[in-house]
Design goal:
The chain has eleven helices and five strands; from the N terminus they run H-H-H-E-H-H-E-E-E-H-H-H-H-H-E-H. It has 292 residues and is mainly alpha-helical. The protein has a three-stranded mixed beta sheet. The longest helix has 30 residues, at 250-279.
């Protein structure tokens, strides 16, 4: 997987892109990064800080979306998702020769372990890896081919007259309803009581270290399988409106917001776990005390 430099001349182009258009939502990636930062060991946090030159990990994780349509980086657009039909199994379905989110995660995880990389390459690898950990946890980034992961499914979002699609609902529209900053949202997710996060009722407030440790495994195929398994709930939609748009109502949002919040939380925990594995392999459990 060859690639040009990410953090050189493209920086001047970043202002051209609106965060509202970014997959999994810019805020979603920031939430994941904030959660991850809460669970890094001190040694890992120092390593990440050195790679980013003390820049915010959430900001770093947004860059892969902002450069994927730029000349020289168009190949990377295929790395944000994986297409697989309902009747196919992840163990044996035909992979896209242009790459996908699983192969990208495997590649950049390996690169972060390579001590021969220069500072620019390590920064690129961290940006891509952090971003793709988020993407694979969004169920429609493990999408059906025929509707391009929900991008071709037109929906009516609550009372809005603006056009939207199902992918956008899961990328950002459901989390936008909370009206919280990424820092506030990450802390609310990362401070849950044992029974407050359905459907699996998991806690990250120090009361359940075993669950934390179970989540942190770096099994990218398992993460994809989890997202694929959620698709039946994602596509549980109502009857089309006269303009052929499927309605997204409050009942759908309330039923599915806990699912997307759980995926954000799991992505943050797993990002921390993978980074700890790379930079502090002797650390056997995640840090549970939250930053103030």
């Amino acid at each position: 997987m060859t690639r040009p430099s990410l953090f050189g001349p493209i920086i001047a182009c970043l202002v051209m892109f609106s965060s509202a258009a970014l997959p999994f939502g810019a805020d979603g990636h920031r939430i994941i990064a904030k959660i991850a930062e809460n669970h890094l060991s001190d040694k890992t946090a120092q390593a990440v800080d050195e790679i980013t030159a003390s820049e915010d990990l959430g900001k770093i994780s947004l860059w892969p979306d902002r450069i994927r349509h730029l000349s020289g980086w168009k190949q990377s657009k295929y790395w944000h998702y994986i297409n697989i039909d309902d009747n196919e199994q992840l163990s044996n379905f035909p992979r896209d020769e242009d790459g996908d989110v699983i192969s990208a995660l495997e590649h950049f995880y390996t690169e972060l372990q390579n001590p021969q990389l220069n500072s620019k390459q390590r920064r690129e690898a961290l940006a891509f890896f952090s971003h793709f950990v988020g993407d694979i946890h969004q169920p429609l980034h493990v999408g059906r081919r025929d509707d391009r992961g929900g991008n071709n499914i037109s929906v009516k979002w609550l009372d809005s007259s603006k056009s939207a699609n199902l992918h956008q609902v899961w990328d950002r529209l459901m989390t936008d309803t909370e009206n919280k900053s990424p820092a506030q949202y990450s802390r609310s997710l990362d401070s849950l009581s044992p029974n407050s996060l359905s459907p699996s009722s998991l806690s990250l407030n120090g009361e359940n270290q075993t669950q934390l440790n179970q989540w942190q495994h770096c099994d990218f195929w398992a993460w994809a399988q989890e997202s694929k398994a959620l698709r039946s709930q994602v596509y549980d939609l109502g009857t089309k409106t006269p303009n052929k748009r499927l309605p997204i109502n409050n009942a759908y949002v309330q039923r599915n917001k806990p699912v997307i919040e759980q995926r954000l939380l799991m992505a943050g925990v797993r990002l921390a776990g993978c980074l700890n594995d790379i930079f502090d392999p002797q650390k056997k459990s995640l840090k549970t005390s939250l930053k103030k």
